[in-house]
Each structure stands twice: as C-alpha cells, then as structure tokens.
Design a protein that fits this description.
The protein is an alpha/beta fold. The protein has a single domain (6-153, 182-497), classed as Alkaline Phosphatase, subunit A. The protein contains 15 helices and 14 strands. The strands form 3 sheets. It has an 8-stranded mixed beta sheet, with helices on both faces. Strands 9-10-11-12 form a 4-stranded antiparallel beta sheet, covered by helices on one side. Strands 13-14 form a two-stranded antiparallel ribbon. A hairpin with a 5-residue loop joins β11 and β12. α6 (185-200) runs parallel beside α9 (277-307).
Length: 529
C-alpha cells in the first residue's frame, strides 16, 4: 500500500444514541469519547436499520437495509452471496481483525446442518480474523478470568450477579458485580485489542474493537456501580400506566405482557412494565456506570495510539448496533418501533488536516448504520460495492455535505417466532408477515406493518410518540404520502447489484450509477473480464 492507513472501528452494544455528553447528557462521564467528539464529527440523528444484534450488525457490516440482507433475526442466516466490510478490506490488502462478535449465522447452503454454529445465537461473520471473540460460548473470556486466579462458579454467568445481595432483593441494584473491574469483559476486550495492536508493528491495520456493554445484565463492577446517583437520572418517558401504552398497538401490548426483568437482571423478577420510577432510575445509573467503564478502557486504546504516533494515520469510528428502551414506554430492550431502540451513536474522527474545519461539530442530517461500511472503504480509497445501500459520511467531515443527502431515515423490525420470543400466535400473524418498516423525518413517523394496523406520529405535536394518528381523518393525506414514500424507497433500494449491466448487440455494457467513483468503475470493469 502506498501509505499507512489504519482503521479503528469501535462497536459497543445497546448504547442509546441520545446518551452522549455532546448531545445533551452532561452528567455522563465519558472524557475519552468526549475527546473523539471534539476531534471528530458527531452525528445527532444516526439510526440503525434493524434490531436486535444480528440484523443490526448485518446492516452495519454489509451496508444493506434489512429488506435486502434478510438476516432478519438473531439465528437467521446471512446469505453467502453478499459481500461485507471484511471481505472488501481483504481485497484491499488488509487483514481485518475482530475483537468482540458479529452474531452472524452462516448460510446453511455452504456448510453442513451439523455445523455447531447452528447451535448458538450467532458466530463471526466471514472475512474477519478473530483475535478475541466473545460469542458464541465466551470460552476465551472465561478462560482468561480463570487464568488470573479467579475461581469461576459452576454457572459461569453468575460472575455478573450482584455481590452481597440479600434474600428477596432482585432487579435494579446499586450493588457491584461479583467480578472485579480488572477481570470484567470490558477489560478483557481492551486487553485483546491492545495485544493485537502491539503485535502489529508498523504494518497497516484494521481493528473491529467490540464491547459487550452497556448490554445487560445491568450490573456494574466497582467503582462504576456507585459512580452515579439514581436521583440524578431522568425519569422514563412513558404513560401513567402500561395499559394506556398497550392500547396504542397490538405489538406494543405483546411486549408489555411478555418482556421479563430476568432478561436484563440476573436475578430479575416480574415483568419489565412493572418497574417503578425509582427502579428505572437505578437501572439507568448502572447503565451509565457501564458506559463510563467502556470510556475508561477505550482511553487506554487511544493512549496507545497516541504514544506510538498512530493517531494521525488512523480513522476512528465509534458506533453501536442498536439502542435500549431503558423503561421508556414501560419497555426494556430493543423492540418494536420507538426511537430509543433504533437511534444510536456515531462519531467519525478523520485525522487528515482537510477535516480540521469540522472538528467538534454536530451533524443534524439523517444518517444510517449502512453508511459505516462506505465511509471506511472511502477513507481507505477502496471501491464501495454496488451492493451497498449507504453512502460515505466523509463529506460531512470535510465540510461539504452532499446536496442530495437523504431527508429521512428508514428502519425495520422483524418479530417472527424465535426460541426466546414467540409473538406470531399471540398476534395472529405468519412468519413472513411478522414485520414492520418505518419512515421517519422531522415532522412525521409512519410505521407500516405487513399484517397489523399502521401507526402515524406527529413528531412536532407528539415527540414522545404516544398518540397514533393513522386513523384520524385529518391525517389521511399524510398516511397516504408516507406510505407512497416508503414504497418508492423500497423500489429504489431493492437489490441492484447487477442492474447497471445490460447486454447489447455490441456486447456487455455497464452504465454509471449515482455517486459512482473511479474506484467503483474499476471494480465494475474487472467484473466484465
């Protein structure tokens, strides 16, 4: 390669997009992430295309809307015909290293039904070289913990139980995790990332550095468990009672009657909807603590890059797979259609001097997780595959946002039966109709269901999204317009990998396509040979 260029892609898990000091959460202590915001560009309205983890990471790492990649749920395979960020990096001479996980199920047509990857929630996406994997069994992490002299309990996950809990105490707690901070999974991810970077020497590198937190269980090691006071946390945005929320839509009613606290706290009891305001505030204080722990560990990585003179050669992208309800609308997790589940952080630090004019800025334009892969490839000067639905964010870092940038965001949610959630029979829908799609701009949010009633929210009058206007005659024209916009979006972004080629009497012809770069054209020309 002509010059040294490195990429650090930091992917956290279940971190809400509104929870950054730069975006109005000043009491959250994240000085290292604040540094990235000050030295880069923060994207205020950045959305994932899907939830939960598997579908979200499929979009992040393929640049595809869920309607195209169709890995619609955890455990649902990703079609092998799609390329991904790692495979494209390999074409450019990079050996893409991965710390963390991608929650990817392989294409069953490419392997045996006895492949052990079909026994777990997900594995590593093809193309990455794992240098510290957490999923599917967490054996490497637990082995490291044991090697440090810590005696693992019979049920290894009990290390995340709160220490010193009294009989009858359950759920949101200020108590610390049993595992100490120096042996936490956040520390382990950092150690694996630093080991890789130290061994890389002067060779260019790409590192996907994943962190499991602030994903539940919501219990933090000392001192992070007590870093924040529950009294300082915001109360949840929700109706006075869960029944009022449930009346909004059958899907919301399902999650309000099915989501259990035990999925979020090792010792949780009862339903998520039954959490009191005080319990939600304590949960949020712990959630903040887990965020601060990540920030401290990320600081170690940034310090290493600084000490080794690599900051000026390294693109740093900080993002997430999906958000978290945190008690809003009486929900926990990443479900349904609310912003809290789909709005995620995105920070891009381009080290080049040409980006100096935008450092510390906040972009209000709508951006999407599908933009991550094109951004990284663009920075490395590598072709962006025609497959990608997203576009590079680098023009925003250089003060030249495209005039034709999108004016809304789109995201989807599939709620078919899987082994840990089975809504189909309760809702009376089939596997192929258990889905919704959202189009959202600054004025309205329209939610279309394949087999259930639609939703429309007037975001100027109802930013909390409590009142469904879809059946209001005064909004009939708005419903029509947004349904038509969604149809146009689907027509425009349907798989187009080969649609710019055509046969002619003179032979194969390739037409240029929007936003094509010279590197795109070279790639396409090779495809003709």
């Amino acid at each position: 390669m002509a010059s040294r260029k490195n990429v650090l892609l930091v992917v956290v898990d279940q971190w809400r997009g509104d929870m950054l000091p730069r975006l109005g959460t000043p009491h959250l202590k994240t000085p290292n992430i604040d540094r990235l915001c000050a030295e880069g560009v923060t994207f205020r309205n950045h959305f994932t295309q899907a939830a939960p983890c598997g579908p979200a990471r499929a979009s992040l790492l393929t640049g595809l809307y869920q309607m195209n990649h169709r890995a619609v749920q955890n455990t649902v395979p990703l079609d092998a015909r799609f390329t991904n960020l790692a495979l494209e990096l390999r074409k450019g001479g990079y050996d893409p290293a991965l710390v963390g996980y991608t929650t990817t199920t392989p294409d069953p047509r490419t392997t045996s039904p006895h492949d052990p990857r079909f026994l777990v929630l997900g594995d590593v996406m093809d193309g990455f070289r794992p240098v510290g994997t957490f999923e599917p069994y967490r054996d490497a992490y637990f082995g490291w913990v044991a090697s440090q002299g810590y005696k693992l309990p019979a049920n290894r996950d009990d290390i995340w139980q709160p220490a010193g809990a009294e009989a009858g105490e359950a759920g949101a707690t200020r108590r610390p995790a049993r595992i100490p901070r120096e042996l936490s999974d956040t520390t382990w991810f950092t150690e694996r990332g630093l080991s890789y970077l130290r061994g890389r020497g002067d060779r260019p590198w790409f590192l996907h550095l994943g962190y499991y937190r602030p994903h539940p269980p919501f219990v933090a090691p000392e001192p992070y468990n007590a870093m924040y006071d529950a009294a300082d946390m915001a109360s949840p945005i929700r109706a006075a009672n869960w029944e009022a929320e449930a009346a909004q839509h059958p899907l919301l009613r399902y999650y309000l009657t099915a989501t259990r606290q035990s999925s979020f706290f090792q010792d949780g009891q009862g339903l998520a909807r039954d959490m009191t305001d005080a319990q939600v505030r304590q949960m949020r204080a712990t959630y903040f603590g887990l965020m601060s722990e990540i920030d401290d560990q990320l600081g170690r990585v940034l310090d290493h890059l600084e000490a080794t003179g690599q900051m000026d050669d390294t693109l740093i992208v900080f993002t997430c797979d999906h958000g978290e309800q945190l008690g809003d609308h009486h929900l926990l997790g990443k479900v349904g259609y609310f912003d809290q589940s789909f709005r995620i952080p995105m920070i891009v630090r381009d080290p080049r001097r040409t980006a100096d004019g935008t450092r510390g800025s906040v972009v209000d334009a709508f951006t999407e997780t599908i933009d991550c892969m094109p951004t990284i490839l663009d920075w490395l000067g590598l072709p962006v595959p025609r497959q990608c639905d997203g576009r590079s964010l680098l023009p925003f870092c250089h003060g030249a946002p495209p005039a034709d940038w999108r004016q809304e965001v789109h995201y989807e949610f599939d709620f078919r039966d899987i082994f840990y959630s089975q809504p189909e029979s309760v809702l009376g829908v089939g596997m192929d109709t258990a889905s919704l799609a959202v189009i959202q701009d600054r004025e309205f949010k329209y939610v279309h269901f394949a087999a259930l009633p639609p939703l429309l929210f007037d975001l100027e009058e109802d930013p909390g999204q409590f009142v469904n206007r879809a059946d209001d005659p005064a909004y009939a024209g708005i419903v029509r317009d947004y349904a038509q916009k969604m149809l146009s979006w689907r027509l425009t972004h349907a798989d187009r990998t080969l649609t710019h080629f055509r046969a002619t009497p003179a032979g194969l012809e390739r037409r240029p396509y929007p936003n094509e770069t010279p590197s795109h054209a070279q790639e396409a020309d090779h495809a003709k040979d």
